Amino acid sequence: MKKRVHGERNRELSKSLFEGKKYYDWVITTAFYSSIHFVEDKILPLKIGTIHCKNINDVKQAYKMSGRHQARERLVFDNLSLKAAAKYKWLDDSSRNSRYVTYKVPYIHAEKALQYLDEIYNECCK
């Protein structure tokens, strides 16, 4: 439940930033980090092969992957609907773009990020 609470806090921040009509890059980034908490809260703990996974580091070990984001993406695609997983990937990619490529994010992308976050929230928390 702790991860869900953290996700809800980030979700609230993402919506607040959107209403401020200025930091759309951070709307997307906080939406993505919020989704991380929701998917982990929904999926973990679980068993992958012989490994009982309580956190993303356990998942990384079970999948024999070097990165947490890659392991989490696989976890999401393996355990959520394809629709939610695709939206999670869009948030991940868009967040990475807004953090490392350009912070100039259009309103429509920030709006889409919140829509996708709400859909992930509904699948994971309702």
List the helices and strands and how they pair.
Blueprint: H1 2-19, H2 24-43, E1 46-48, E2 51-53, H3 56-63, H4 68-79, H5 82-100, H6 107-125
Helix pairs in contact: 1-2, 1-6, 2-4, 2-5, 2-6, 3-4, 5-6
Give me some keywords for this one.
126 residues, mainly alpha, Four Helix Bundle (Hemerythrin (Met), subunit A), two-stranded antiparallel sheet, 76% helix, globular
The major beta sheet can be summarized as: 2 strands, antiparallel
What would the CATH topology be?
Four Helix Bundle (Hemerythrin (Met), subunit A)
What would you give as the CATH superfamily? Answer: Nucleotidyltransferases  domain 2
Number of helices: 6
Specify the CATH class. Mainly Alpha
Write down the overall geometry: globular
- Rg, Å, rounded: 14 Å
Number of strands: 2
Explained architecture:
- With 126 residues, this protein is mainly alpha-helical.
- It has a single domain (2-125), classed as Up-down Bundle (Four Helix Bundle (Hemerythrin (Met), subunit A)), CATH 1.20.120.
- It contains 6 helices and 2 strands; from the N terminus they run H-H-E-E-H-H-H-H.
- A two-stranded antiparallel sheet has the order 1-2.
- A hairpin with a 2-residue loop joins strand 1 (46-48) and strand 2.
- It is globular and about 45 Å long.
